[in-house]
Automatic annotation (TrEMBL):
It comes from the Bacteria. Keywords: Lipid metabolism, Membrane, Oxidoreductase, Transmembrane, Transmembrane helix. GO terms for cellular component: endomembrane system; membrane. It is found in: Endomembrane system. This is Sterol desaturase family protein. The chain crosses the membrane at residues 6-23, 35-65, 125-146. GO terms for molecular function: glyceryl-ether monooxygenase activity; iron ion binding. GO terms for biological process: lipid biosynthetic process; membrane lipid metabolic process.
Length: 269
């Protein structure tokens, strides 16, 4: 059984979601039931796509592994010690590209569609990740000698860690925020304010944001607004999953020449 579906993990997630609901109600923040139901609809729709992704990408990465010029031993702790920052580095660039390249944003935008920052909103994942091909960022890791099982395992831990980042119940964490991604960092990442857009791309670590100049912190005079900039809110999971693709198709259909077509497909969102 995959760790994401283990009863213990699911039970802990449910307990934390319920605790967060109680905290938000006690603090007067409210809990949008309609937004929560939309998230559950996205999760339900994602199940068959996730199974297809696992099947096809498992085969693709296994094929890459068979022709990898070097193979680092999976049972050596040094492989995992090197693999962790390598996967984090690849994730940073995948995540950054998912905000800057329209083809990738079409899938990733689903994750940013919630207008409340809650633990449950972390489960808003696009249905079209296989098609948008963000997995390409991880293929070089296999050719660098990292077993696909290590890559997928560390990515699973990365995403599990990020579940805890999607909340307003945790404040600033002091020196921890110099190295690790925290709820404060990730709240700003989900902001639709022009001052905050396209910042804080890290997964577990925030160090690559520091190195590449994409780190930002919340300003007292600029409270965070969640949701998608320049897109109306909708509670329809199917529309959320597919509407950016429809806009891409519309713009591609009226493009005049290769340059406009490339901009429609791969320009900034």
């Amino acid at each position: 059984m995959s760790p994401e579906r283990s009863p213990v993990w699911l039970a802990m997630m449910l307990a934390l979601v319920l605790a967060e609901v109680a905290w938000r109600m006690r603090k007067g923040h409210g809990y949008d039931a309609r937004t929560a139901l939309t998230t559950l609809g996205i999760v339900a729709g994602n199940i068959p796509f996730a199974a297809l992704n696992a099947l096809l990408l498992g085969g693709l990465f296994t094929a890459a592994w068979t022709i990898a010029p070097i193979r680092l031993p999976l049972d050596d702790w040094r492989t995992w010690a090197a693999g962790f920052p390598a996967v984090e580095f690849a994730y940073y660039w995948f995540h950054r590209a998912s905000h800057r390249v329209r083809w990738l944003w079409a899938s990733h935008s689903v994750h940013h569609s919630a207008t409340q920052m809650t633990l449950l909103s972390s489960l808003r994942l696009g249905w079209t990740n296989l098609f948008s091909a963000g997995w390409i960022f991880y293929v070089p890791l296999v050719f660098a000698g990292f077993d696909p099982r290590l890559v997928f395992g560390l990515l699973a831990l990365n995403l599990r860690y990020q579940f805890f980042l999607h909340t307003e119940a945790v404040g600033r964490l002091g020196p921890v925020e110099w190295i690790f991604n925290t709820p404060a960092h990730h709240r700003l990442h989900h902001a639709s304010n022009p001052a905050y857009i396209d910042r804080n791309y890290g997964g577990v670590l925030i160090v690559f944001d520091r190195l590449f100049g994409t780190l930002a912190t919340e300003r007292p005079d600029e409270p965070i607004r969640y949701g998608l900039a320049h897109r109306e809110a909708t509670a329809n999971p199917i529309r959320l999953a597919l509407r950016e693709w429809s806009y891409i198709a519309r713009d591609a259909a009226v493009a005049r020449g290769p340059r406009q077509l490339a901009r429609a497909l791969f320009g900034a969102p």
